[in-house]
Q: What sequence folds into this?
């Protein structure tokens, strides 16, 4: 199954600044980097994974703070609790945007990957450089039939992984990328 | 001692067995079966100039157990000696008639003496020694290696067997090191480094002549020369094949004079470079603190910190000794970098194994005009090289002229005048423009520099930040305090990244990074105009694919 043939992908076009202009737009709000609009997005259900993750984190931090407050009597610990609550709610609110911000493009010779809203990251990995591709499934992802793809190159800093792909998409993408990597295999 | 196994003719005649018989015999193909007579094994096999490279299993140097356990053995002997010395002193005191010898009934040696069990004790000691020697012998017998056409293999272990191999087309470097102790025995350690953590194959220890011969042979086979020759031989018979072998690898002439180092580091400069470094600042701070404290009457600090100051001196000397005798040579098999006064290390890096390279100048070196060159390679040596670092500092210190020479050796593609001008521009303070190469008129090429607004994020270094694409490599200049010029060969680039946070977005800047294998070099531009960054991103992404496809690094002379 090709990556393009997915039914559940979300298409979203970024309002992009045009390349060629230094100070994007010149207006106060600078635009996002424009890398072309043809991004493949991850499954909409991936939002659920992010939300569950955020809630779990929020609860864990809250529990730690409660222990600090009630058990050790740190009186100002309620401030941390409030901060935790605010942070968790904020993360929950931007969860859909975070999920939507993850995208990838299969170009002729390389995989283009992007993620991030505030802190954006764009990575281009030539197919021939992929040493192996991992498929991971977390507990929540498994319930929703979602899988994470992780790409490994010889550079530890590459750090490219596409989370929240539908199972079939993930398997198809992995097979396709492995085949591409095989045909373009070069040395290290 | 070493039995200096002279390099045999590359043409393939087997050298006569040298050295005392049995000192280093070719091992049988199966450990455990009786040894054949020396030299019979590879009879009639054409090709390998080194007996140990004939594709059969061989053993390491017989002194290996002693050398491997060298430090431990010395320590044990030292402990025994220390104890015995006490015994001897004790006995002497008794003979001298000193009565008030402390009561040492708990001491086992005393107990043995008292019960007249000296004979038994000696017997037990002898038995333990015999067992130890037997085990060492067994482990030596079971530790075998084989150098085939495609890989180097090592088998070891008595109880649990270990097998490890290194594919020759994946070799990242071959290091020939001679620790002081091993040097006394005329032996050396050969380490074949391949990509990956702790994946290296180590042949420790070999007779010196064997080690150098094996290094030459391994690199020759890895280069693909041999493969091409073998194919030709299959077509054209033995004699012609061997002549072809000769013809295809003319650089492997064993009679050729040893090439001299392209760069020599004067000892004074080396010592200066080691002393003028970050740790010295810390040392100066400690000394200042101690002096101030002493003036105020806190002598305790003096007592506590004095040893650490001594240790510092030791560190300087150790680094100095390790980095001395630096040499860098371009050979047919690649760059050969050597270090060391007492313990030496000599690494050969085949062409195309350098993933990134940087020319650095710390602030304190600026008055002297010194620079350092570091590299990223996929293979890591176990041993530390110069200055306690891994063997990544291929030029510990040098003036711009030395930098130019070393870069010419390391990346021959950068040796022409145009590139040299680019490199000079990359190292200079502000001059982003490279002078036009000789014989060419018009303005030289310019680095694409960071815009003025980058000063918000990089108040000092924004004037230095810039990049340029030079044929098959990207040159990045960064850093005001630590000036650096980073060179990344596109054929080795793993991936390319752009980052942008809120501040950079506001300023229309991006952070560009070029991902290479792990090492001391981190190629990147902290601030660059967003549009220029995107242009760099796409250009590099495309050029890297093209460069990688055109690259034949695996078998570098085969193409």
A:
């Amino acid at each position: 199954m090709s990556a393009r043939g997915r039914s559940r992908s979300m298409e979203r076009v970024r309002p992009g600044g045009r390349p060629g202009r230094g100070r994007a737009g010149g207006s106060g709000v600078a635009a996002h980097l424009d890398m072309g609009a043809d991004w493949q997005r991850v499954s909409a259900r991936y939002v659920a994974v992010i939300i569950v993750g955020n809630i779990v984190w929020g609860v864990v931090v809250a529990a730690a703070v409660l222990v600090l407050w009630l058990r050790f009597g740190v009186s100002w610990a309620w401030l941390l609790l409030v901060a935790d609550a605010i942070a968790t709610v904020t993360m929950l609110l931007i969860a859909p945007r975070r999920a939507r911000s993850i995208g990838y493009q299969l170009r002729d010779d390389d995989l283009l990957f992007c993620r991030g809203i505030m802190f954006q990251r764009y990575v281009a990995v030539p197919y021939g450089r992929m040493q192996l591709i991992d498929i991971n499934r977390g507990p929540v992802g498994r319930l929703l039939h979602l899988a994470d793809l992780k790409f490994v190159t010889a550079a530890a800093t590459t750090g490219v992984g596409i989370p929240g792909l539908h199972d079939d998409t993930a398997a198809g993408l992995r097979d396709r990328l492995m085949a591409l990597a095989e045909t373009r295999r070069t040395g290290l | 001692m070493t039995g200096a196994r002279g390099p045999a003719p590359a043409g393939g005649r087997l050298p006569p067995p040298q050295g005392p018989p049995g000192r280093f015999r070719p091992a049988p193909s199966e450990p455990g079966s009786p040894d054949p007579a020396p030299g019979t094994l590879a009879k009639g096999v054409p090709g390998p100039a080194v007996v140990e490279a004939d594709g059969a299993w061989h053993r390491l140097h017989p002194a290996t157990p002693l050398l491997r356990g060298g430090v431990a053995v010395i320590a044990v002997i030292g402990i025994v000696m220390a104890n015995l010395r006490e015994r001897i002193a004790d006995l002497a005191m008794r003979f001298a008639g000193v009565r008030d010898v402390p009561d040492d009934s708990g001491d086992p040696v005393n107990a043995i003496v008292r019960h007249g069990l000296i004979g038994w004790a000696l017997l037990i000691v002898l038995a333990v020694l015999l067992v130890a020697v037997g085990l060492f012998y067994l482990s030596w017998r079971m530790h075998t290696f084989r150098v085939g056409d495609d890989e180097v293999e090592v088998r070891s272990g008595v109880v649990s067997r270990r097998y490890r191999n290194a594919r020759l087309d994946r070799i990242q470097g071959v290091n020939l090191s001679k620790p002081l102790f091993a040097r006394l025995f005329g032996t050396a350690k050969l380490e074949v480094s391949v990509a990956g953590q702790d994946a290296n194959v180590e042949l420790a220890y070999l007779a010196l002549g064997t080690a150098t011969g094996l290094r030459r042979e391994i690199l020759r086979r890895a280069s693909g020369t041999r493969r091409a020759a073998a194919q030709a031989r299959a077509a054209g018979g033995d004699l012609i094949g061997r002549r072809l072998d000769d013809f295809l690898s003319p650089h492997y002439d064993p009679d050729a004079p040893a090439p001299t180092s392209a760069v020599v580091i004067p000892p004074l400069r080396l010592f200066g470079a080691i002393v003028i470094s970050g740790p010295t600042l810390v040392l100066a701070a400690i000394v200042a603190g101690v002096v101030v404290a002493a003036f105020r009457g806190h002598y305790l600090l003096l007592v506590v910190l004095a040893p650490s100051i001594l240790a510092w001196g030791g560190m300087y000397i150790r680094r100095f000794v390790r980095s001395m005798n630096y040499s860098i040579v371009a050979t047919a098999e690649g760059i050969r970098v050597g270090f060391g006064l007492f313990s030496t290390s000599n690494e050969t890096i085949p062409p195309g194994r350098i993933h990134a390279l940087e020319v650095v100048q710390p602030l304190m070196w600026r008055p002297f005009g010194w620079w350092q060159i570091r590299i990223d390679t996929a293979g890591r040596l176990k041993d530390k090289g110069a200055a306690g670092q891994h063997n990544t500092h291929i030029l510990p210190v040098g003036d711009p002229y030395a930098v130019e020479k070393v870069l010419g050796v390391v990346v021959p593609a950068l040796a022409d005048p145009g590139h040299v001008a680019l490199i000079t521009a990359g190292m200079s303070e502000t001059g982003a423009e490279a002078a036009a190469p000789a014989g060419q008129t018009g303005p030289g090429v310019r680095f694409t520099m960071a815009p003025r607004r980058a000063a918000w994020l990089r108040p000092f270094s924004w004037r230095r930040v810039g990049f340029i694409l030079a044929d098959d490599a990207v040159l990045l200049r960064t850093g005001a305090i630590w000036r650096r010029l980073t060179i990344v060969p596109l054929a080795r680039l793993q991936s390319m990244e752009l980052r942008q946070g809120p501040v950079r977005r506001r300023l229309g800047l991006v952070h560009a990074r070029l991902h290479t294998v792990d090492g001391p070099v981190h190629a990147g531009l902290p601030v660059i105009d967003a549009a220029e960054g995107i242009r760099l991103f796409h250009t590099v992404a495309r050029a890297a694919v093209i460069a990688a496809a055109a690259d034949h690094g695996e078998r570098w002379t085969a193409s």
Q: What stands out?
A: The two ends of chain B are 41 Å apart (CA to CA).
